[in-house]
Amino acid sequence: MQNDVRLFFTKTGLAKYISHLDLMRCMSRAVKRAGIPLWYTEGFNPHLFMTFARPLSLGQESLCEVVDVRLVGEMTFKDIQTRLNETLPKDITVVSVQKPVHKPSEITFADYEVRLFCDIPSALKAYMEKAFSKEQIIVLKKAKQGRRKIDKEMDIKPNVLRFDAATAENAVCLDLRLTAGDQTNINPTLLLSALTDGFDGEIQNTDILKKHILLENGEPFC
Length: 222
Known about the structure:
By secondary structure, this protein is α+β, with helices and mostly antiparallel strands. The chain has four helices and ten strands; from the N terminus they run βαββαββαββββαβ. Helix 1 packs across helix 2 and helix 3 packs across helix 4 (about 190-195).
């Protein structure tokens, strides 16, 4: 008997430097060490069935990563969560195990918390707000042209559903909601690059945390 299972996990701290390919390997090894009976694909080269939704960009943290697997034996969701957390690195933690409700293709938005560290936060905040107030925010985004990928100009202003800025000690804090659909998945680094282009101050570091993934109606993806 096969049962599809959805794992929600966090990827924070040093784990943000783990690439998506290495994350797949890490999760696959953890599942095997945990003794979780999962389904393998059939054919000449069988491999573990494992599907990630909206993989995270390198260097970013997340509280809402998702991977779907297929269970072939009996095990409670609590046991799956406990066993995986005993084998995964400390900065990757399974926070929920459940039956899938929605398809990954139904993901429409993502919420982010961003902190840009600088010497004069008020100046950076004002600069970014002025840039965001423009009618368009033009960026270069990779697009497919046949078998090639080319840089294509795109106005991402319509893809920013929320942009709230505030200052903290040595940082500008942003609360963002960006489109995250199949055709309109906007990486926050694109927006940040456009809004800080030409700023004459120094931005020492940028922390990006994905907090939620949402459906078109604004409800949480589950």
